[in-house]
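#struct-help
A.M.: can someone run this one for me? Single chain, 624 residues.
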Amino acid sequence: MNNKFLLLSFITLFLACYSSVFAIDFLKFENKNSTTPPIENTIDSLKQIKKKISAFVKKKEYSNAIIYSKKLLHEAKLKSDSSTIDNAYFRQAFYFDKLNQVDSSYFYYDKSYTYNLALKDTVVAGERLLGMANIQKSLGDYTGAMITAIDGLKYLENTEELESTIGLYQTIAVAQKELGHPQEALRWNTKAFNILKNNPKAEILPSSIHIITITRANILAEKKEYSASIHILDSIAQETTGKNLFEFSRAICNMGHFKWLEDANNPESETLLLESLRIRTSLNTASGLFSSYIHLAEFYFDTKKAKALRYAQQAYTYSEKLNNPVASLEALDLILPLKRDLRQAISNEAITYSQLQNQLEKSRQTIRAIYAATKYDNDALEKENLKLLTQVAIKEKQKILALAAAVFLLGVIGFVIYYKNHQKQKEQLEMSYKTELRLSKKLHDELGNDIFYLMTQVQQDTPAPTDTKNALILNGLDSIYQRVRDISKEFTAIDTGKNFGKEFFALLNSYSSASTKLITKELPLSFWDDIAPKTKIELYRVLQELLVNMKKHSEATFVAITCVKNAKEILIKYVDNGVGFDINEKISGNGLKNVENRIASIKGSINFESKPKEGVTVTLTFAI
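D.P.: on it. Structure tokens below:
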């Protein structure tokens, strides 16, 4: 016993580690089919190979179709045609399944599944898992089938592949029923029906709908809810009668079986079972005939054992045609006790039973080994893909954060620019307001008062105007005229072009008078070429402000203004010998604050030096 166990363990381990052993399937297959024509050594196009495969399939020569599918795979790999590589894997899986060589079929389904995962085509990968789960189900490995189907749902659930999703739900429902969990089976079957309910316009094959409907009936019968089960089967029979003999015969066969389970004396049971057998014999469907013979063997098992044995032996014959060890075991489960009861020899059947059990277990273990090894590799692949997706997501998140930061920074910069411009506009408005106020004050306080004084002189009631009075009026008018010219100069537009130098020099000289001597040096016309128009305007107004203040308040008899230019900046120096002032007390009250603001606006600097009775020195500096 221990030696057998060790041998079985060694075989299982060997298969798990070297799943490539399935290449031997092809050699075995070729030896079995000595009539198979050899592959030509010509180089055919992929299209030509597919055409040859289709011709073989049409004649149901699946052995030849497999051989050319292998050639298709070889040529597709040489051309690196990923679509055709997968197609070649799938074809071999499908044709081996048609020949009931399920181990090989499973192997190539697994190859296709792995290949599509590597290509990140998860939908096709999920469909391949459906094929693999169905093979496990056919071998009676219901736990394995359920695990594989649930893995398939990871890729197909909530996709547009509704029929494949229904197929996975169906596989899980059948597995749960066979494992003795009818309530769970019903839950998964309901999920399949919900797809139909929620997608009434979906193109689902009628055969798929019939399968899940009959499965529902079988599950209800397993729960001993025979009336509900028979009602479903009866509706299918009425729907398919005279239209689809295959579905009709299946419905009435199951209905006859469940009526018998509900009531062993129900006279309809035998009639339905025999009618189903008659139809299936005419259709010559191996799977249908096996089912009918099994149910009839069960029906006659207690009452007519010899008849039951004949039906059980017929079932066994068709199980061999199906090459289905699970079906063979099901038939032998009836044959062995019937032969024992009829006192017939059972040694051959018993040996066959044991061999089938070993063969079936070997197939199950082999398939589990393939899936275990592949699942490990694919889980690693999925983890790697998930890691890559995570890295991509992180990079995308970083890009979004960088973009958000850039947008925020631009927003801040925009706000600062807006705020600065707003402040500048505000300062300009305030300056304009102050200018208007000063102009109004000049007109009212100075010119208005002088004009009023002259008017009172003219209106004095004197017999005849004297020369002194006339001279006084003329001088007054001349003074008013000169001040109007000064106001005009102060508030008129400034030419910042080529004539700026002349206008600037004219400004300085205009403040020279008999009582105040102003000294300056005329500058070359090119002196102002590198200066921006705005800077020229501000500089002009600053010096104008200084000269106005000088004339009003300083009582200076001497004023000197010098301008010096180097490669980087211009330096202008103003000096007078007036009464001076206390900088800390009067700089904000005599218009000089306005001078500071103007210089700041052109990014220059201004420095005042003054003491009472010691004159004023002002130094202006700004970059070119």
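A.M.: thanks! DSSP finds 23 helices and five strands in the chain.
D.P.: also worth noting: Residues 347-459 form the longest helix (113 residues).
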